Amino acid sequence: MKxxxxxxxxxxxxxxxxxxxxxxxxxxxxxxxxxxxxxxxYNRIMLSPVLAGEKTVAExxxxxxEWYARHDITLHLGDPVVAIDRTRREVTSRAGVTVPYDQLVxxxxxxxxxxxxxxxxxxxxxxxRDLADVETLQARLAEPAPVVIxxxxxxxxxxxxxxAGHGIDVTVVHRNPVLMNRQLDDAAAAxxxxxxxxxxxxxxxxxxxxxxxxxxxxxxVRLDDGRRLPxxxxxxxxxxxxxxxxxxxxGLDCGRGIRVDDQLRSSDPxxxxxxxxxxxxxxxxxxxxxxxxxxxxxxxxxxTGRGRYRDRATSTRLKVTGIDVFSAGRIDPAPGEHCLRLRxxxxxxxxxxxxxxxxxxxxxxxxxxxxxxWFFDLLGERRDISAxxxxxxxGERFCEPDDTTRPAIDSPTENAA
Length: 417
Hints:
Layout: E1 4-8, H1 12-25, E2 30-35, E3 41-42, H2 47-52, H3 57-60, E4 61-63, H4 65-70, E5 74-77, E6 81-85, E7 90-93, E8 98-100, E9 103-106, E10 110-112, E11 125-126, H5 131-140, E12 147-150, H6 154-164, E13 170-174, H7 186-197, E14 201-205, E15 209-213, E16 220-223, E17 228-230, E18 233-236, E19 240-242, H8 245-249, E20 258-260, E21 271-273, E22 278-280, H9 288-304, E23 315-320, E24 323-329, E25 337-344, E26 349-356, E27 359-366, H10 372-381, E28 413-415
């Protein structure tokens, strides 16, 4: 009899694991998947283009129902698991479906982090994490009432750009004076802000929400500096929390996420986990690249018993209409590190590379991100760049060994403080 594998979660992490399993050893497991959403697997990164009208829901679907049927995977949509009996090795769904397992995988993802402030439960207040959130926002586009987005990170800015493209009055409130402060330095963030302001997005930086006001639904956001912003919709994009309530109820060892070892195994040897719901070596995850790697490793563990997950450098890329941003590694130099910078304000281009000795340790690009992947490879591989250090900012094309048309850069290096 085939080993019975149950996957809790049909988001990008869970579905990627299924793809890896099918590619490695199709038919090895009897697989059952439970998904909380009523849709097949879709590309969550593309929610902002759907909101902006640049993509349709059909265009961002990755694995429709037919894909699961074709690979003999039993799929329960809109029916999340609500109970786990670890002794009997059974899961039970909200609809009362009980399925036994030999191996169980948590891929429950995350949920928006909502602060405990007055008014947080008012209608019109929520996050921006799934298709239901997009559909709710799209339904309000016919009545262009003001929207306040709390959080100036990647997700918040993409949502703001999408709404502004529909002519909606959008204000982004960010507690840090620098947008995307975990990925961008001051100069890069200023260029990004200017580009988004030209598209109609307003910003209030260096402050945060103190309360949400309203009687029957949200009417305004009160900031901690006393200002009051009218709002018919408030979106929180200030962070995520691993969705681990079910894991805690099942008695698994949890910190910020479900604690797993290098084989992505939980405190129960029959239960693994991956994606935004896990904690590995004290770290949680919110970007696609490490989750893809986790899916690859876990597929190896489940099929051959071999595989080991190790954290690697990751990159962040933001793309809204006409604006490209790329970031990887460090964004500010430490003592003993150096910066290479290139600025072209008229073209909205900014490039910054951080070097330690002869290795790239940080990349920040705005406007021209064509060489982002190449810089990221240099960073990840710790390649020695001494042979083309003075040409590095011009990108891969000017650093090829046989290239004889190489411009020089006049004094591009700045010592770190």
